[in-house]
Write a structure and sequence with these properties.
The chain has 343 residues and is of the alpha/beta class. 36% of the residues lie in helices and 15% in strands.
Length: 343
């Protein structure tokens, strides 16, 4: 099968090639899929895309006209795909529902620790030959109450790690898992309880209609003064303007984000020679109590190999005329009325 890969990055290629084992013909493109280049997929039975590629109805129609029959998403999220229209065109779509949960979980813990101990401030001071300690008084993670919103595989892994730090762990999810209560002393509660009691809140829900802007002005007002907020889930879970306002007022003590609601066209790209026109992002970047990483939570060798393996599993199923168990249908769009557990 001949497959065109969009939004490819150099770090992906070795893992995809290893999983392919020279079975299929790969064409790697760094550009994102769009209405302008979709017609260029003539001759490709399948394409592979990432989170910021355009898979709206007009693009899917162009792909159908080009002869594309299959779309393999190299990610878990699929909110950028019009699955209903994909079903109409007959194009099959599959994602990577699971990969190493430790990649995002450990990134989350690292962000919590870095903000708690003011590591970025310390690093910047030392590089200016300032070795004083006055600005570096931090807090300990031990005995903190941490609220995890979304107890999928990533949320559970974070609970396991936090248990070792001696934290009180609160969790919100529609489905409760008895094992994490027993082994990691997690207490399930309502969102409102979690917002009012947690010293640290970390987000691990998918972005669906019911989770859009879960972190908003109203819910921020319920939180403890000086709360730490971490988002390594989906950018749209957070109303960034509301968070920025909370930071300015001191309601939010620190904020770590690996994802951003307006990251498309910015994250994953080198903008060092350009003028950044996003005033909100610029203001966040100027704050010492904000830690921003460019959607790198998934970026470990283990996770990249997991993603490549599942992507090739989907492609191999299709090349043999079989359905993949990871295919997405319009039913998944319907599921967007309820919060899902998959991080």
């Amino acid at each position: 099968m001949k497959i065109k890969f969009f939004s490819i990055r150099p770090y992906e290629e070795p893992y995809l090639n290893w999983s392919n084992k020279a079975i299929h013909e790969f064409i790697f493109e760094t550009e994102s899929l769009s209405l302008q280049n979709a017609a260029g997929c003539v001759g490709f039975e399948a394409i592979s895309v990432f989170t910021n590629d355009d898979l709206s109805a007009p693009v899917l129609q162009k792909l159908k006209e080009a002869g594309v029959r299959y779309i393999a998403i190299r990610a878990t999220g699929y909110n950028h795909v019009d699955l209903k229209y994909a079903g109409i065109t007959g194009i099959k779509v599959a994602n990577v529902p699971d990969y190493s949960p430790y990649s995002v979980a450990e990134q989350t813990i690292l962000m919590i620790l870095a903000l708690s101990r003011k590591l970025l401030v310390a690093d910047n001071q030392v590089k200016l030959y300032n070795f004083t300690l006055n600005n570096l008084v931090g807090t300990e993670l031990h005995n903190k109450t941490v609220g995890i919103i979304g107890m999928g595989r990533i949320g559970k892994t974070i609970a396991k790690i936090l248990n070792g730090f001696g934290c009180t762990v609160l969790a919100y999810d529609q489905v409760q898992t008895p094992s994490v209560v027993e082994y990691y002393k997690v207490r399930y509660c309502t969102k409102e309880e979690l917002f009012t009691q947690a010293d640290i809140i970390t987000l691990h829900l998918p972005l669906v209609d019911s989770t859009k802007y879960l972190i908003n002005e109203k819910n921020i007002s319920l939180m403890k003064d000086g709360v730490m907020l971490i988002n390594t889930g989906r950018g749209g879970l957070v109303n960034t303007e509301a968070v920025l306002d909370g930071l300015k007022k001191g309601k939010i003590g620190s904020f770590g984000m690996d994802v951003y609601e307006k990251e498309k066209g910015v994250f994953f790209f080198d903008k060092s020679g350009e003028v950044l026109k996003d005033d909100t992002l610029l203001e966040l970047m100027s704050l010492k109590n904000v830690l921003i990483t460019p959607h790198q939570g998934f970026l470990t060798s283990t996770a990249l190999q997991d993603i490549a393996n599942t992507t090739l599993f989907n492609i191999n199923c299709w090349s043999k005329g079989e359905d993949s168990r990871f295919e997405l249908t319009s039913k998944h769009d319907a599921d967007h009325t309820e919060p899902l557990r998959l991080s």
